[in-house]
Amino acid sequence: MEFKDLLAFKKGFLLAMKIFEASKSFPSEEKYSLIDQIRRSSRSTCANIGEGYRKRRYPAHFISKLSDADMENTETQVWIEFSFSCGYISGSTKTEWDQDSIEIGKLIGYMMANPEKFGSKKD
C-alpha cells in the first residue's frame, strides 16, 4: 500500500482540488490572504498524511505527523467559514466542504488511534 491509497489522503486530495478550483473565482484582493491560506492548509493536510505514512515505522512520529494533518484540516475548516461569510462560496458548497473535512478528520483520528493497522511497529 502507498500513502495515495489511504482513504484520508484520497478524500483530502479531492477536497483540496475542490477548494483550488473554487478559489480561482475569489476576488484578487484575497490572493495573498484567504486564497493562499485555504489552498495551503488543504494541501498540507494531504502532505502531512503522506509524510506520516513514511514515518509509520515509528508510532510516535506517525501519530505526530497525523496530528499535524488534523491541525491543517481544522485550519481548512476555519478558512471555509471565512469563504462562506465573505460570500465567496454558497451555503451548499460550505455544507459539502464541511462534511468532507469532518470525514477527513474522523479518518485521521482513526489512523492516530490505530497506528498498528497502518504498518506502525510497536516497540
Query: What's the level 1 CATH class?
Result: Mainly Alpha
Query: What's the CATH superfamily, by name?
Result: 23S rRNA-intervening sequence
CATH architecture: Up-down Bundle
What would you call the shape?
elongated
Largest sheet: none
Query: What is the rounded Rg?
Result: 15 Å
Number of domains: 1
Structural class: mainly alpha
Oligomeric state of the chains?
single chain
Q: Helix amount, in percent?
A: over 70%
Strand content bin: under 5%
Average pLDDT level: 96
CATH topology: de novo design (two linked rop proteins)
* Series of secondary-structure elements, N-terminal to C-terminal: HHHH
Low-confidence stretches: none
Kindly summarize this structure in a few lines.
With 123 residues, this protein is mostly helical. The protein is built from four helices and no strands.
Can you describe this structure?
The structure is a single chain. With 123 residues, the protein is an all-alpha fold. It has one domain: Up-down Bundle (de novo design (two linked rop proteins)). The protein contains 4 helices and no strands. Helix 1 (7-23) packs antiparallel against helix 4 and helix 3 (59-85) runs antiparallel to helix 4 (91-113). The radius of gyration is 15 Å and the shape is elongated. The mean pLDDT is 96.
